Amino acid sequence: MEFLLIYGTEMSHPFIHRQKFELVSPLFPPLGLLYIGRSLEDEGHHVELLDLFVEKDSISEIKKKMTAVDAVGISVDNDSYNESAQLAHTIKNIDPSIPIIIGGPHCTLYPHDSLLNISAADISVCGDGEQAIKDVAAGLSGGKSFAEIPGIYYREKHDIKPGLPPTFIEDLDSLPFPARHLADKYDYGKCGETYLYRPKLTSMVTTRGCPFRCRYCLRHVLSNERFQQRSAQNVLDELSEINGTYGSVMIGDDTFLADKKRAHKIMDGLIELGSTVDVLIGGARVDSADRDLYKKMKKAGVKAINFGIESGNQDVLDFYNKRISLDQIRKAVRLSNEMNFFSTGTFILGAPLETKRHIEQTIKFARSLPLDNVGFYPLSYRHGSDLWREAVKNGLINENEHEVIADSRRGLANFTQEEMLQFCNKALRRFYVRPTYMTKEFFKAFIANDFRQVKSLIETVLHPTHFHLHNTLARNKNPP
Asked: Which residues fall within 8 angstroms of residue 21, CB to CB, at 6 or more apart?
């Protein structure tokens, strides 16, 4: 069979310059669809990928591909399911007979209702999709009944029916590596015309789920309350495949360094391999900072690391159940800076207990840290998170609301949503527009003889309307 896998929609693009309406290449390839593509290819099917975040004429390209396609798969997240619904309708208008399969976070959270929300879709896959997509392909070709397929809902005439209960992959090492060649036609890792990392860039994940339970996070829901790790050797096998073909790789785990013993083995293996690929760590907890490990990471080619810091107030960190201290944050960021890693810190403003004093303290705390990049975001109550569940229980949020920005008018914060966005923009400007900060960044760039990040930062400072873009870059470390 011929499959067309589609990622993104033009209007949901995370890096749209809102005033000029210019599309900017996303940082990383759609890893989830590359895993799905590999599963289909292993069954003998032909697969093509369309990344609509990159394509300049999406509809024209879809029409061109549809002439030889047997089925279409669309990745759907909660932020853009309305746009995905429009896309599915557009595809049905081109060819009413084409089967449309949807999957991704929205379908995992709403396995039945995703087909109501995206009425032109025929099949919804929830949870791990690597095996399910093989079964769906067999069902489309008449070799399997949809009622016998685990982890799907399907449309039968006017009814939405369930398949069997979902199954989950027990051994991540059993998964084949993603079909990266499907995305090789696209140029990732750029902010505007500037490469933030060494091209050619790809991404990978070495874990699924998270062993921690921060109150604002829904990762435990998406992973069915499981935390799984690939073995160090399996990770090294994939990195060895990437080495020499790609210049940079983003490891998109939520907490890559949680198992220090495994992390040491991976870094030892990269050093022994003589790897030349730049490694970017998309998620690390500050309590995993360790001098011996960080020194080994530097030797192994780690160039960047992202910390989820969230607040400069201990009472707010405790409210979020972060299980970290301000001293641990300082230690981790200073150690990262000492190793000359490009360090990013993300912060959340708007916890129900936060006052202006809390917000001011978080901004001051961020400015006191030797971070290279920051993101400030208003607190979101996201479906399935502990905060969301508590708000639903207290009647502050409706069960059908997917994501709600903290807002005093709904009893979710001490400030309105508009005020929170103003605080975030103010925090960004106060962080970046500082002589001491720019001097530090130029010095680091001079030592490394690499001015790519500095160029991007200068554009941010000179063009204040770009602050939202840089904020998004800090958040969107990996979009599988």
From this structure: none
pLDDT digits (tens, 9 = 90+) for 445-463: 777 676 666 666 666 555 5
Same domain? For 72 and 156 the reply is: yes
Strands 403-405 and 228-229: unpaired
Contact assessment for residue 465 and residue 16, using Cβ atoms and an 8 Å cutoff: no
CA dihedral of 463, 469, 473, 475, whole degrees rounded to 10: 130
DSSP code of residue 365: H
397, 468: one domain = yes
Q: How many H helices and E strands in the chain?
A: 18, 19
- Residue 119 included in any domain: yes
Residue 198 DSSP code: P
Same domain, 213 and 263: yes
Place of tokens 């129900």: 352
| Shared domain check, 349 and 231 | yes
Q: What is the Cα–Cα distance from 276 to 200, expressed in whole angstroms?
A: 12
Q: What tokens were used for 250? A: 């983003």
Which structural domain range is residue 367 located in? 189-475
Question: Residue 224 is part of a domain; what is its CATH number?
Answer: 3.80.30.20
Rounded to whole angstroms, how far apart are CA atoms 109 and 114?
8
Pairwise CA distance, residues 154 & 160, whole Å: 6
Mean residue pLDDT of the chain comes to 88
CA-to-CA distance for 83 and 106, rounded, in angstroms? 12
How far the first Cα of the chain sits from its last, in Å, is 24
Give just the sign of the alpha carbon dihedral 22, 28, 29, 33: negative
Considering the domain architecture, whether residues 453 and 340 belong to the same structural domain is answered as yes
What mean pLDDT comes out for the span 71-80?
89
* Residue 21, number of CB atoms within 10 A of its CB: 9
Per the domain annotation, does 180 fall within a domain?
Answer: no
Residues 93 and 193 in one domain: no
86 — pLDDT class (breaks 50, 70, 90): very high
Are 114 and 263 found together in one domain?
A: no
* 167 found inside a domain: no
Residue 342 contacts residue 304 (beta carbons within 8 Å): yes
Distance CA 59, CA 65 (A): 10
**Mean pLDDT value of segment 152-168:** 93
Check residue 48 and give its pLDDT.
Answer: 96
Domain shared by 137 and 231, yes or no: no
Distance of CA 167 to the CA centre of its chain: 23
